[in-house]
Amino acid sequence: MGDGPVPTSDRSSRAETELASGEARPMSSASGSPFDGVVYQIYPRSFRDASGDGVGDLAGITAGLDHLAWLGVDAVWLSPIYRSPMKDFGYDVSDHCDVDPIFGSLADIDALLMAAHQRGLEVWLDFVPNHTSDQHPWFLDAIGSREAPKRDWYLWRDPAPDGGPPNNWTRDFADGAPAWTFEEATGQYYLHEFLPEQPSVNWRNPDLREAMLDVLRFWMDRGVDGFRSDVIHLIGKSPQLRDDPPELRGVPRAGHHHEPDAVAPHLRAIRDCLDAVPGTTMVGEVNLPDAAKVASYVGPDRLHLAFQFGLLYAPWEARSWRDTIRYVQACFESVGVPPTWVLSNHDWSRIASRAGGEDGARVAATLLFTLRGVPFLYMGDELGMADAVVPPERVVDPGGRDGCRAPLPWTTDASRRHGWTGTPWLPWPPDPTRHSVEAQRDDERSVLHLHRRLIALRREHPSLRSGAMHHLDTHDEVVAFERGDVDAQRAPAVRVLANLGASDLEVEHAPGWRVLLTTALDPAREGAPFSGWLPAQSAVLIESAAG
Ligand code: BGC
User: Is 438 a catalytic residue?
Assistant: First the structure.
């Protein structure tokens, strides 16, 4: 390999090698995505700091890649690393084609791409298509006058007859505040579905659309393998920016912020652009409560994959997880595309906090890697990290999300800042020594080792990798399903049984199943016939005798 990033033409070779081996068949996908691995989300500010300023950076991520290769993930997705005033910590982009100095430089991303590709890891960036920073040169042009060349790249409207905002839309991060800011100089309001410093762009303007596609081309040319697209549904707003219906008043980003007919041509254009570099994947954040609507965003002329956040928002109880899994599965099977599964991210409380601690986190991880679909693992979940408690004087995020963005502890030594060279920008998660990479690498019974085993099993076991999924009815407190039907001769079926309840219980089962893995910290049972016993807050993988 030369000095620059890996050329884009070499990128699909890994998937092709796997296909050729015949061992590992990717899930069939009507969206045309060859990607069926595990994606690890890095929140760059909090992953690892090489510069010593207490904020994570690209050189830190490169230094941490061996950990991720050891863990066995296939791709890393970096939350935004572009130039930004950081009002929304990078989701307010002021230059899409440069790296913010706090994270490093373009040379650092080239080095990261090369190091990742050498380890067989894909690198996905966050594409932020719905808005820019108010400091972006596009907006600085647009705000200048009503005739400015880029005026129509954003959404400007005259005041309502009473002088108020042009419609009833409200914005995020502010209870019921309008999604509009009045700009004195030109006497019009501009739309922003998030902070006033994040003006929403106008995808109906062909030049804006082309400029956004150029951003994708810029990064694909540099060797980037995929993208996570921020709130992509919002680029298809009602052309008339119609008022939301009364029942959705005050609900940010609902109603007419996204209309299927309005978004379809933009998805098609994005897809054509991505298809120019085969092997490139895009997962869209389509943050809608109904998985059936989310599933309408994937397909051969739209996204490869879409986030549905069913398990992120479901309360930790078996009935709710069962219903969510069944519904999501049905919605995505009907369009022939694998769903994604997400337990945590940089916007929501972590799974260890929501599932009552480490035992629950182990159970949830077992489901994440055994469900049919593409798992997204949020950095720190592999260590069983819970949300940090952030005292009021250290709160920095306008959306109250600091707790789930706590820094990753690398070493056990608190006196040496758990491997960070500077004091981290946010407080540690609870018990950072126990939840450090160092402590957990040394302990084969750790949450980290459980993740590594699950990821390896998902890759190596044909039924988990590509088998169909059938739901099983066992017990009220249990989520249970079977993966199999790959090749009855060679691939034994796998059953997953997860007890989310507070009591130990026994499930009925057919004889002839042996334990592949248990989260109950009782490795003695592994390899033994399954007895039916499921301790409280534990999960087990069992394998049929056939095979
Ligand atoms: C991102 C958030 C961000 C928002 C605005 C979201 O969906 O995940 O972190 O604040 O979009 O860009």
Answer: no
pTM score above 0.90: yes
Q: How far is the CA of 469 from the centre of ligand 1 (A)?
A: 32
Which residue owns the Cα nearest ligand 1 atom 9? 347
Coil, strand or helix at 12: coil
> Active-site residue 53, yes or no?
no
Contact at 8 Å (CB) between 307 and 286? yes
The conformation of residue 431, written as its DSSP 8-state character, comes to S
d(CA 344, CA 79): 14
Atom of ligand 1 nearest to the CA of 285: 7
pLDDT at 27: 56
DSSP assignment string, 92-111: S-SEEEEE-TTT--HHHHHH
CB atoms near residue 146 (< 10 Å): 12
Work out the average pLDDT over 532-542: 96
Residue 456, amino acid: A
Spell 498-513 as b/e; 16+ CB within 10 A means b: bbbbeeebebebeeeb
Say if residues 498 and 472 touch (Cβ distance below 8 Å). Answer: no
Measure 274 CA to ligand 1 centroid, in angstroms. Answer: 22
Sequence-ordered list of residues with C-beta below 8 angstroms from that of 241, at least 6 positions apart, any chain: 155, 157, 166, 167, 169, 191, 256
* Predicted pLDDT at 28: 55
Q: What is the C-alpha radius of gyration for the chain, rounded to an integer number of angstroms? A: 24
Nearest-atom number in ligand 1 for the CA of 131 is: 12
pLDDT at 525: 86
Residue 122 CB partners (closer than 8 Å, separation 6+): 11, 14, 35, 37, 74, 75, 76, 116, 225, 226, 281
Upper half-sphere CA count for residue 425 (Cβ side, 13 Å): 19
CA quadruple 523, 526, 528, 531: dihedral sign: positive
**Residue 473 Cα to ligand 1 middle (Å):** 37
**Ligand 1 center–CA 347 separation, angstroms:** 7
Q: What percent of the chain has pLDDT over 90?
A: 86
Q: Which of 49, 122, 126, 285 is labelled catalytic? A: 285
484 forms beta bridges with 468
Closest residue by CA, ligand 1 atom 2: 347
Atom of ligand 1 nearest to the CA of 128: 12
- Residue ranges in 348-406 assigned as alpha helix (H): 351-354, 358-370
Residues with Cβ within 6 A of ligand 1? 88, 91, 128, 194, 230-231, 285, 287, 346-347, 399
The count of other CB atoms within 10 Å of the CB of residue 458 is 20
Cβ–Cβ under 8 Å, residues 339 and 304:
no
Measured by CA distance, the residue closest to atom 3 of ligand 1 is 91
- Helix then strand then coil, in percent of the chain rounded to 5, is 35, 15, 50
Backbone angles phi, psi at 283, to 5 degrees: -110, 130
Pairing of strands 340-342, 374-378: parallel
Say whether pLDDT at 10 is over 50: no
Q: Count Cβ atoms below 10 Å from residue 423 Cβ, excluding itself.
A: 11
- The residues with which 157 forms a beta bridge, in sequence order, are 189
Residue 32 sits at the vertex; the CA angle it makes with 493 and 204, to the nearest 5 degrees, is: 140
